Amino acid sequence: MKKNTSFSKVTFGLTFAMTTCFASFTHAALPETLRLGTNPAYAPFSYKNPDNQVAGFDIDLGNEICKRLSIECSWVEGEFDALIPGLLAQKNDVIISSLSITPQRMEQINFSDKLYSANSRLIAEKGSDLEPTIESLQGKSVGVLQGSVQEAYANDKWRVNGVDVIAYQNQDLVYDDLLAGRLDSAFQDEAAASYGFLQDESGKDHAFAGPAVKDDIYFGPGTGAGLRKEDEELRDAINNVLAQMLEDGTYEEIAKKYFDFDIYGY
């Protein structure tokens, strides 16, 4: 760390200009490389492209953040429920993988400012009368991603009331069992379900079932980048470049590649 004179420059730069002083802060206080953890089975946020490379909205956001921080970044793939343990075990440095900001997770890790909003929706066969309520789902099966906020909500609200909640290691396995008739419904992020399943030929016979489920305790204000609690300087740096991206239109430009609606949720 530099002495107080440099810190004063940093403070001034972040508050008024976020230009050369911010760059000085970046090189003085941040690591030269970062490992970004993601689960590439959740299109359009994180998935494998035809060249077997990670791609998606989360990936584009992460790469742009690294570019602006002048940090070399690599992507570390893992199952979703292993991302936070991996962060705490120093196997990755930042999680960018549709990670909802929730009170439970904030007991373990820190978060950046919001990356985007995330509604949770039930999907079922077209014509189904299923709704995301206890009364409608009693005796029915619901597939969820293991370690997700949807799993936590479904276990606490539905399983205890006679709903068969089944967790899977990745989202593609949920869709496979839904298509095979082994599940009555699936509960996941709205944008991921729309882009990654319903708009695909395989999902043509399925649709959203009922409205989005709202619960701030479980779903929080949206998703964020997950960091270790001690990495406050890294969190602040990510927040600053994210604010720049929102201000200069870069965020919107990236989002338009994947969504025809306001994913940030102004």
TrEMBL record:
The keyword Transport applies. Residues 33-262 form the Solute-binding protein family 3/N-terminal domain. The keyword Signal applies. Pfam families: SBP_bac_3 (PF00497). Residues 1-28 form the signal peptide. SUPFAM superfamilies: Periplasmic binding protein-like II. This is Lysine/arginine/ornithine transport system substrate-binding protein. It comes from Thorsellia anophelis DSM 18579.
